[in-house]
Known about the structure:
Elements: H1 2-16, E1 18-28, E2 36-45, E3 49-54, E4 59-64, E5 67-72, E6 75-80, H2 85-98, E7 109-114, E8 117-122, E9 134-140, E10 146-152, E11 158-163
Antiparallel strand pairs: 1-2, 1-11, 2-3, 3-4, 4-5, 5-6, 7-8, 8-9, 9-10, 10-11
Amino acid sequence: MKRLIILLAFVICQVSLSVAQTVTRTQHRAAVTKDAVTTGSMTIRKPGYISIATDGGKELLIMDDTKFTMTLGGKKHTTDSRKNAQFATFHTVLKAVINNQPIPAGDDLTVSDKNGLKTITITPEKKRRQLFTSFVLVVDAKTSAIRQLRMNGRGGDYTEYKMK
């Protein structure tokens, strides 16, 4: 009985720390005339886990503490923000947003407030083989709910997630 109560308390704590939202993903390729639009869900678990799954789970974007995993077009990309400078600031900002903490200052990021939304633009130092040229995160200023994530690529390409 004692184990059952402990297990039930653990499950309740896990559920209360988990948030799910509906997501629309737009993938824009400059060379293609029509954008690819899919829907899915985003799950957030404090202190440092975000999962965005679209297209029936075929397209994934996962942050599990410092480890980032992205599956796009059947190709899996993984990195760790401790080893990849491009994702270091991105990880710090996402973790602050998840935990409703102030956005840390940095040379590679700007924060603007407008109409109750914070727009955080992260532009990492440019290197030859970067997957993204910048990240733009739009967050509700009062609730810290993520409203939009845009990952800009080279040549006008981008992947954008809009949360509802």
